[in-house]
Amino acid sequence: MGQILIFEPDQVQYSGKIKIPSIGDTFTDWTVKGYLVDDWGYNLEGIYTECKCGFKNKKNNLSRLVRGKSKRCASCGRKHMGKTNANSLWQTPYYEQYGKLRIQKITSLWCNIKGRIFEKNELYKPWYNIETFTKYMLKIENSGLPGFTCDRIDNRIAYHPNNIRFVDHKVQTGNRQITREVLYKGKIIPLSGFLNQVFGNQFYEYNRAMGRDIESYFSSHELIDGNEILKYVDGVPYTNQQKHRTLLVEGIDHSGKDTLIDQIKTDHMYWHNGVYKDEYKAFYAYRKQIVEIKNSFGREAILNRGFISERIYSLALDRDKIPDASFKILEKYHNEINTTIILCLPPLEVVLKGWRARIDNEFIKDEAIMIKLYELFDNLESITSLPVIRYDYTKTSTYKE
Fold first, then answer.
1. pTM value surpassing 0.70
2. Among 94, 132, 133, 387, which is 20 to 30 Å from 240 by CA?
């Protein structure tokens, strides 16, 4: 997997909570020039920035950049050290009175806590200056001493001047937020363990990675009855016996696909697949859709074209966007989400009539290729092992197996 530079923030795939900066945004001496992404799915690898001295960093860390921990290049940083007060003489009397190790531990804590403050407000005003922060912390019992760590008095509230104490590891461990617990099959287990046990680790980790706090859907104060958990993301009911049902609508142009989808689509998950640039983009896009469906709490889904069309068009146009190995993998994944193919295929003369009427706007200009595509779709059962239902909008019967 390689890396490429892009310059459009809308193309970047990023599931974090930090907003991706725009081209031209400045962070101290850095200016955003682009985005480094992988060439597989355009997932963000780093921010392409330029220092005011002209040095370019192609992989600046987004979090460090936005939070102010990365301000300039190393060369400018060395020149700037003489101008900053972070290691200035104000620390000397504190070293002599409280000890160098204790002061260094508190100043290190200042850097860590400062990184957690996204927006300035009056609550954090005493902490904006490192010397003010140090004076404040030295008034707190056991601050910076060996064996004691910074802890929040109330875990429901963020770190701020009135919610800080220094305690040993035993006290801090006992001050964790109450774990949500579930009564399931006669045992009390953590909610995260319940979700893993019932729905699989992939389901839980995927939704966490997508920024969905699954645990927040359930009460944090009372013991939960695992047998009553039926609610999920988007509020879609689900039971262990419920299965996915995915419809992959395929067919040649002018075969009535879009009209049929408009008739049957209600609250389905829906994707309309277009033309992908290469094998990797196509395979990644189709796999990502399958993962979304697999982790969608049993919702039904409709795909307007997919890997079947990629294979058929590849055969007709002598290209290979979905090789045999990739095709078999995608077919296996579709079996796992119970995919049924609806093949829209009216008579050939009906398709050609619609195609000729709009030939100026069509991707395919050769009638011989249109006929070849029709024949390949007509023999779809020999290409895939997935179940196929044929649909001909020119007939009174809606479906014909």
1. no
2. 387
